[in-house]
């Protein structure tokens, strides 16, 4: 392989890894799996996910806390009994540590390599064209916005709090969490607290 080709691949790999340190992309909405080069932990997750209230009215805010030892990354969703993300995380755009992700119902599916390339260029667009959003296959989706939360950087976090607003419909909803202690140690899609909306 030519030195130019090797350099290009390394540059793309470093850029792609850097993009993921800035939070989870839309493509992880379904499986909540970080695209790290190692397998997820099979042991019990050493982090506790707690909620300020287990019973709320529609539209009422709930504080969700990730506690335990420090961690670098996370991906949170609150899902209904069909596995669809519901509600809305309320994170200001200027928050230093977290941001929302729009996990919508996909009308079209793309092979994983295509999605990875699209995410890479989308993350570069967002990084270098400040203030401009880049939505992956915007016209291919319908449904939710701000219904997942992820880290904004790989800074150590501890006893981290987020606000989630309950959906308008009654039901029982489960908080799912992926937490990354670091790039090589992470727990994926763990069901935690149940929130009843009535």
TrEMBL record:
Task: Cite the entry's keywords alphabetically.
Answer: Signal
- Kindly list the GO CC terms recorded for this protein: membrane
Q: Which Pfam families match?
A: Reeler
| Signal sequence interval, chain numbering | 1-19
Residue ranges occupied by any Reelin domain in the UniProt entry: 6-198
Q: What is this protein called?
A: Reelin domain-containing protein
Native source organism of the sequence: Acanthoscelides obtectus
